[in-house]
Every structure is written in C-alpha cells, then in structure tokens.
Amino acid sequence: MAQYVLEFALFIVLLLAVTLFMPSLTNYLSLRRLPLNGAQHGSYPNRLMAFTSNAEQLYREGYAKFKHTVYRVTTVEGSRVVIPTKYLEELRHLPDSTINNIKSLFQIFEGKYTGLNENAPLINHVVRTDLTRALARLSPRLCEEVDRCIKAELPPCDDWTPVVISPIILRIVAILSGNLFLGPELCRSDEYLHMSINYTVDLFAAVAALKRYPKILRPLAQYFTPELSSIQDHKRRANAFLLPVIRRRRAMTREGMAMPDDMLQWMINKADSFNVKDDAELAYCQLSLSLAAIHTTSITATHIIYDLAAHPAILHDLRHEIHSVLQATNGAMSSQALFQMKLLDSVMRESQRLNPTNMARFTRYVAKPVTLQDGTGLPAGYFIESPHMAICRDPLIYPEPDTFNPHRFLHLRQLSHTHTTPPTAAAAAEHKHQFVSATPDNLSFGYGRHACPGRFFASHELKLILAHLILAYDIRLPADANGVRYRNVVRSAVVVPDVGKAVLLRRVVYE
C-alpha cells in the first residue's frame, strides 16, 4: 500500500513539473528555431561580450542578413527577438494582454528593486490630454522661462567662449519642465532641481549595478547595492518637498481660490478618477515625470547642439527662418510659430536619426505566443524589439545615411505637396517627416498606441530652447576638434553624447 501511495505521489509531482515547465520549454524551443545573429561568437558569455562591446555592429549585421525576417540576438537583458518593420503595423494592434510595453520597461529599469511604478495610468492620461492641450495656452509662460534661463545660465560670450553645454542644457530643461510640472514659483527651487535631475542619474546607476549580477542573484544582490538607497532618499525628499504643496493646494480648492495651471494640479484634480488616494503617490509621479522627460530631452538637445556646432553654416538659414516666423506673429513664439519653424524641425529630426538614444525600439514583452498572418511565430516569455538604429541608417530609406543633412526632412515634407497629390494624402505624408512623428521608419518615440505621449511637449520645449539659443549665439566647435562632430558614448545599445565636451559660443550682435 505504501508503495502505491509513493508511486502516486511521484506521479503527481511529475505531472506538476510537466505542467509548470512544459510551457517554458515549448517557448524556449520556439526561440531556438529562430536564426541567431552573432552565432560566430560561440558561447552565450562570448555573445554577451560581443553585444556589450559592439552592439551597433551586431544590429547592423543582423539588419543586413535578416532585414525581412525575425531573428534573435543575445543582449544584456537576455535573448531578444528582433522583428522587421513589416510586422509593426500588425503588432501594434495586439492587446496589452498579448504583448506588453510596461512589463518591458519594468524589466529594463529593474522595477522590482528600484520601485519603478509599473502602472501609471494617471501620468499617461494627464500627459496625453491636459499637457498636450495646454501647450498653446502656456507657451508664453514657457517662452519667458526660457529667455530667463538663457540669460541666467549662459556666460556673456562677447567673444568666442568655450562652454561645456550639456550640464547647462540639463539645468535649463529641468527648470522649463518644472515650470509646467509644478509651476513658475517652484521650478527654480534648489530642492526641486536636485531631485528632478539626480533621481534619474541615481536610478540608472542602481540599474547598472544590479545588472552586473546574474538575474537569479539579483533578489540577494539588492541588499548589497548601495545605489538603491539613493532612490529611496529621493522619494523621501520628494515627499518632504511636495506633500506640503499638495496639502496647501487641497486647502485652496476647499476655499474656492484660483488654482495653479500645472501638471501637479491636473493630477490632483483627477487623482480620485484613477483611484490615487495617497498624496505620496502624487509626489512620486513628479519623480516619474523627471525620469521620462528631463534627461531624454537634454540628451536630445545636446546632440542637436553638437550637430549645429559641427555644421555652423546652417545657423544662418535657421536664424532667417526664426526671424521670418516671429515677424509674422508679432514676435510671439507661440505653438503655431514653433510649428512653422520647419527647417529647425528638420534639423532636430536629422540629429535624432543619427543619434538614437537606443539602438532598438518598440520593445515589448510577449505574454502569449503570437502567430503573425504570414505564419511567423513569436515565443511567449521573451521580449521583441525593432532595430531602430539600423533602420535609421538604411540607404534605401535615407540616401547617404551617414551624412548629416539638415534639409533632409524639410525637403521630404516639401515633396509631399505636389500638384498631383490629394490634400489629405499630402498632409499625412508631410506629418510623417516631422520630429514628433512615430512611424515604422522613425521609432524614436515608439510606435502605435504606446508611442511616447510626451513627444509633443518635448518638441515644443526643444524648439523654444534652440530658437532662443540660435537667435542669441553663434555656435561652432573648438579648433582642436578639426570640424569633426564629437563622437557619442555608447554603452551596449544605449547612445549618449559626450557630456564633458565644450562648444564655442559668441553672442550675436544685431545692428
């Protein structure tokens, strides 16, 4: 009898093991059937080392060999499934229960240990609706803030002056973003600037520290990662700084006073609708906004300034365009005025094309196995991505792809308007080539319904800063750069500018 009980127990254990591990095994076998890019490097550790040391080469090789087919690559996040652009339209219509972008961000930023908010519907809603709609209304306020920042943060530069521009731009972006996030009274506060700038720096440091450990050891490694304590310190400081502000605003509402016009207030107004009951969560939303907005915008601005410094001849045309637009708007740098600065938009888009912040985009977690219309299978339990950087350097899409052409996207927009093109089609084609466009050929802001909702604010902010800077200063590289644009700093698949480099500025004198 005891033998039968033991055999039955072993059968149950075996059945449970098969039930639990068979899906994972099936998914793994499905993954293994996909061609492996980088197989020439041999073992998994060697492939990982190849990715870490030269991810750009791997993505370029993969794009050349598998441009129209799915393949896999070994990355610092494990095996990734790389998909060609032809599948993006089909994939973007799949529900979040099948492919999920939030889970991919949660893994990339080690959200389990860093405390990253995995579900932020309030932030997404307010950015997508209130923030975007407010840009036209609040543009004069933002324009005043940029003018104040340029004068306060940059040296006089009466003659050619070397300026390490990146940290200055970071501070200007933080102040300008804070004006819209918290209002003009708080955006220049030292406490706000400290937490909004340094939270992202410390979070990335914590993520990098955790990723030095194998995934299986990270639950233990978190207790030996001092960088994580800095994140908690930022949250405590955010509470200390913002909770009194939130309480004061709630009191103002009860007293029927006029309320501030900023994101914090819009979030307070809608918190109940999104079941946000804790004011500390509203405070944390401000840190999340700084993570999403401030550093990415300042990185993009720095890239653009480096490109302008390497191609100073374009400044004359840009300055002429800005003056012409402002003359037509009586000097008002409104949303409509910024939209009319199409050469500036083209310069921004071209710089973004050549300097993607990440070599792969449209990252999604595959929660359920996917069979695409042509029969291609995507295994569950893995992440998919599209080779953004390689697409941006495809000569069939962008002739002379390695050349900075400031007029590239302006010409493409102009070509959209021909005598034979219907007006609706022309407008759609012109929109495709704008800085804010999210298309299969431009994944800088993602694609589909999860494309970055803050891209319109980012564009508005960048144009305000760049237009003021271009009107005020000539820009060029120092002599020892020999006219060659500064090389980017590449960490695996992440691309950032060399933030320690100086450009030469000289104030423009108008007669």
From TrEMBL:
Its cofactor is heme. It comes from the Eukaryota. GO terms for molecular function: heme binding; iron ion binding; monooxygenase activity; oxidoreductase activity, acting on paired donors, with incorporation or reduction of molecular oxygen. InterPro entries: Cyt_P450 (IPR001128), Cyt_P450_CS (IPR017972), Cyt_P450_E_grp-IV (IPR002403), Cyt_P450_sf (IPR036396). The keyword Transferase does not apply. Keywords: Heme, Iron, Metal-binding, Monooxygenase, Oxidoreductase. PROSITE patterns: CYTOCHROME_P450 (PS00086). The keyword Oxidoreductase applies. Heme binds at residue 452. Belongs to the cytochrome P450 family. PANTHER family: CYTOCHROME P450, P450, PUTATIVE (EUROFUNG)-RELATED. This is Cytochrome P450. It comes from Podospora appendiculata.
